[in-house]
Amino acid sequence: MRFGWALACALLLTSVTVSAEPALELRLLSEHAVDGMRGGNLSGLAQCGKELWTVSDRDDDQIYRLDTRNPTWQAETVHIDVPLVPDTGLPWGLRARTWAASFVRGGDLDFEGITCDSAGNRYIVSEGHAAVLQVPPTGPASWLKISPMLVREARASGMLLHFNALFEGLAINPAGDTLWLAAERERRGLLLIKRQQTVWDCDGSCVLLSEGGMEMQPAQFPHARARPRDFADLSLFDGKLFTLERNAFQICRRDAVTAKVERCWSFAAEALQENRRYSQPFGLAEALIIDVDGAWIGIDNNNGARADGEVRPIVWRFAAPEGGWSAKP
C-alpha cells in the first residue's frame, strides 16, 4: 500500500509541472521579419562563422543563407541535391504518414533543425525520416551513417512513437564528432551519438533524457493551460546544452552529459505582448542560437498571421542575461 501511494504521488508530481521559482525574463533587443523563404515556416537557425543559416520544414531541396544587413532580413536560396534517404529503423506506418502529409503541406523530409561545426559543415535533421543530412562547404550532401540503435533506443524509451513528434532539433560540437538530438514531445528527450570511424553510434546509451508529462503555459498566454513538455531546438555554447522549450516559452541550460537542468530563462513577457500574439493555441518558437552576447530565436508561424498582421517568419534577438549564460541562480 505504501509503495502504491508513493508511486501515485510521483506520477502526480511528474504529470504537470508548475515552476515554484519563475525563470528570469530575457530582454528583447530587436525583431526581424524574414523575406524570401519559398515555403515560409522557418524551423531552424545556425551560425557558421559570421553567417546565419536557416531551413524551412516545407522545402526539401534548398536551405537559406540570411542577409542580415537590414532590419528586414533576406533569405538567399542555396540549392542542395539530397540523396536517397537511408532506412533509419522507423516503422513503416510513421514513414507512410510523413509521405502522405507531404502532398498536402510539402516537405517530405521535414527539415526541423540546422547546426554547424567549426569546419563549416552544416547538419540538418529530417524529422520525417529521423535522419541527419550533412552539407559541406563544397561538394555533395550526404546522409550520416547512423547506427539503428539510435532509433531503437529512443523508441524503447517512449520517444519517436507519434507522427510529427520525432527529432525537432540538433547541435554538434566544434570538432564535428559529437551530435545531440532532441525528440520533440510525448515523450520528449535528448540523445547523444558520436562519430566512430564511418558510423555514428551510441557512446554507451544513446538516451540522456526521456521525459513525459504536462507543463503549464506561461500566465501571459491567452487561456493558458497545461500542454505536453516539448523541445523545439538545441544550441551548444561554452560546453553547455541549451534547450528551446516552446510551450513553456523558455530556454534552459543543461549539462551536456547528463541533460540535467541548471537554469532557465523565460522569453514569455516579450513574445506574448498583445501585438506579437498568434491565434494558434501553442508556442511557435522553433529555432535557437546561443552566443556570448545573447540568443537568436526563430518563429515558425505555420503561415499564420499574428495580431499586428505580420505573416512572415520572425527572428528575435535577446540580450544575454546579466552575468552571462554561465551565471548561477
TrEMBL record:
It comes from the Bacteria. InterPro entries: Phytase-like_dom. Coiled coil: none annotated. Residues 1-20 form the signal peptide. Keywords: Signal. Residues 40-187 form the Phytase-like domain. SUPFAM superfamilies: NHL repeat (SSF101898). It holds the Pfam family Phytase-like. This is DNA topoisomerase IV.
